[in-house]
Known about the structure:
Blueprint: H1 2-65, H2 67-82, H3 85-98, H4 109-132, H5 135-138, H6 141-154, E1 161-167, E2 172-174, H7 183-187, E3 192-195, E4 205-211, H8 214-220, H9 223-283, H10 291-323, E5 331-334, H11 335-351, E6 356-361, E7 367-370, H12 372-388, E8 395-402, E9 406-412, H13 447-457, E10 461-466, E11 472-479, H14 481-491
Parallel strand pairs: 6-8
Antiparallel strand pairs: 1-2, 1-4, 3-4, 5-7, 8-9, 9-11, 10-11
Helix pairs in contact: 1-2, 1-6, 1-8, 1-9, 2-4, 9-10, 10-13, 11-12, 12-13
Amino acid sequence: MEKRWILWLFTAISIALAGLIAVQVYWLRSTINLKERHYEQGIEDALIAVSERLERVEKMQDLRSHEAGRKLLLRLDTLRSGASPLRLNAGTTGMLKGGAFGNSSSASIAEEEEYEALVADMVRGILATELMRNIEDRLDPALLDSLLSEELAVHNLKGTVQWGVFDEERVPVFVPRPPIPGEDELAASPFRTRLFRHDLAGDPYYLHLNLSDRSSTVLRGVWPMLAITALFLLVILVAFAYTVRTILEQKRIGDIRNDLVNNLTHELKTPISTISLACEALADPSIPRTEQQVQRFTGMIRDENKRLGSLVENVLQSAVLEDGQMRIKRVELDLHALVQDVVRSSGMQVSRRNGRIELELGAEIHHVFGDRIHLTNLIYNLIDNAVKYTEQEPRIRIATQSNDEGVTLSVSDNGIGIAASEHRKIFDRLYRVPTGNLHNAKGFGLGLSYVQVVVERHSGRIRVESQPGKGSTFHIFIPFEHVRSDQIARSGR
C-alpha cells in the first residue's frame, strides 16, 4: 500500500509540474507573439509615417518650383502674417469652400477668378510633373534614410536598416546599397508601404524595409521575465528531484532497517536457544554427563556467548554511527604490536578454517597517536570479513609501510572479491554486498561502515582494491601526529 501511495504521489506531482511548465511555456509564447505583433505594428506605422512625410516634402518642393504654387504660398504667408488666427481660419475656410482666400462676400469677382486660375494651373502642373518624372528622380536617398532613422527611433525600433524601392511586381527600382543577406530577401520582406499614395496618376511603387536585429529586439523586452521563469522552474525541478531521491533513499533505508530487525531477531534466537538447550542438558540428571559431553556443552555455551557478544557489539556500533558521537581517546601506540595482539586473538578463528595469517610489517616508523580500542576493533573487523567472505582456506596477509606523512596498513585476503560497481557502496551503513551462493557470510552491513568512521576520526583514508574471484585488499592510511595537526590547522578546525 505504501509503494502504491508513493507512486500515486509521484504521478500527481509530475503531472502538476508538467502542467505548470506547459502553462509557463504557453504564457511565454503568448508574450513573445504579442511583442512580435507590437514590433511589426511599429514598423508598419513607421513606414506609413515616412511615406506621408516624403510625400509632403515633395509637394512643398513642387509648390515652390511652380509659379502658381509660389503665388499660392506667398498669399498664404501674407494671410498668416497679416490676419488674426480667427480671421485666417475663416478666410482659409472660405477659400476651400468658395475658391477664394478671403471672405467671398467681400472679395471681388476678379480676385476669385485669379485664385481659381492659380489653383487650376498648379494642379495641371503637378499632374504633368507626376506623369513625366521617373521614380528615381523623385527619391532622395539621404532624405529617405534620415526619415526612416527618425521614425524608427520614435517607435523604439533598433537595428541595421536595409531598405529599397520596388515596383508592384517586387522588381527593384532603387536600392541604395547591396543588402545583406540579399536583394531577394529584401524584396520578399513583409514590411512595405506604398510611396506617393496620393498620386493621381502613374505606377505604384513600394518602400521595403528589413531590420537585422528583429529577434533580439523582440526578446530584449521579455528576457528578464524569461530568465526569472526559467530560474524558478529550475529550482522547482531540482527540489522535486531532490525530494524524490530523499523519499526513495528513506524508503530504502527503512527496508534495510526492517531486514536488520528481522535478521537480528533470527540471529538472537539461535544462540539463545542453543545456550538454553545446553544448560538444560547439563542440568538434566537423566542425561549421563561424561567429561567429553560436559566439555562439548560448555564449548557450545562459550561459542554462542561469544556470538551473542558479537551481535550486541554490532548493535552498539550501529548506535554509535547513528548519532555520530564516536569519541576518540588518543594515546601513543605501536601499530605493529597492536596488529600482533589482534592476530594472536584471531588465530583460533582462522585456524578453524585451516587458514593462516601472514605478517609483513615493513613500516620503519610505526608509532601513531590513536584510540587503542577502535583501532583494535578495526583490525578485528577486517580479519573477520576476510574469514567470512572466503569460500576456501583463508589466506590473510597484513602488511605495513610508512613514509614522511604516515603509516599504511594493508589487509589482503583470497576471498570472493567485490565488483567495481560495489566499491563505493560497501562503506555505506547497513549495506551488504550480494554474496551469491555463499550462505555462511552473516552480518548486518555495519563492519566496514564502522571501519570507515574510525579511519576518518583518525584523519586517515581508506580505499579498496578488489575483483570478483581474486580477493580484496583494504589500504588504511593513518597520518602521523604532526601531519594531522597541519591538516587541522589548514581546515580551520
